[in-house]
Amino acid sequence: MIEDRQQGIDNERSETGLYILFLACVIFLIFSSCLKDKRRDDVVKIVREWTGKEIKFPKELFCISMQKDTTCVDLYSENFKILLYVDSLGCTSCRLKLSEWKKIIRESDSLFIRNLEFVFVFQPKKRDEMEVQFILLSEEFFHPVIIDKGNEIDKINKFPSNPEHQCFLLDKDNKVIMVGNPSFSSGIWTLIYNTKPFNQQML
């Protein structure tokens, strides 16, 4: 009886924490962008729609790395994950922001002892595949990258069209905890780290 009551309390705290994170995410995205009323409504709608939604992955995905040995990220591990989806319009050096992601990954390895994984899914057009590999090599970005030539992951999940909303913090069940791209704003990364439901389970 006592254990059941304690579990109920823990569940309530978890739900409360996620609700607080939802509000914090909405508030940050709205005020950091100085949005007009319509765009504010769109942000609230996207965050509400995606929070708690499970991300599904195709069975077969092609993984590359600029290192000799390529080991893809385990998409179904029990670690938390940050998923970045980049569509065919975003596969350029300035849009990928790989230098920012390198900093974020280094900081994550220090803070979370590799308990946070990064899943990069790029969907370049066929003529841009070599350019993507060149960018990865020139930026010395050695983290594995999934190349989704058929855009299967977007067909399954139907991601938002705005690049700012194509990045997600996922829990161990691949359910969305937060929407927002930390490479666009350091405030997003700070919000991720300082949010108790995430932080307490990672450390």
Describe this structure in words.
The chain has 203 residues and is of the alpha/beta class. It has one domain (2-202): Glutaredoxin, CATH 3.40.30.10. Helices cover 48% and strands 14% of the residues. It contains 8 helices and 6 strands, in the order ααββααβαβαββαα. A 6-stranded mixed sheet has the order 1-4-3-2-5-6, sandwiched between helices. The longest helix is centred in the first third of the chain and has 32 residues, at 2-33. The chain starts with a helix and ends with a helix. Mean pLDDT is 78; it is low at 2-14.
What is the overall shape? globular
Question: Largest beta sheet: what is the strand line-up?
Answer: 1-4-3-2-5-6
The CATH architecture assignment turns out to be: 3-Layer(aba) Sandwich
Give the class from helix and strand content and strand pairing: alpha/beta
Kindly state the percentage of residues in helix. Answer: 40-55%
CATH fold-level assignment: Glutaredoxin
Report Rg: 17 Å
Please, how many domains?
Answer: 1
CATH superfamily: Glutaredoxin
Quaternary structure of the protein: single chain
Mean pLDDT comes to 78
Low-confidence blocks of residues: 2-14
Beta strands, count: 6
Major beta sheet summary? 6 strands, mixed
Strand content: 5-15%
- Number of H- or I-type helical stretches: 8
The H/E string reads HHEEHHEHEHEEHH
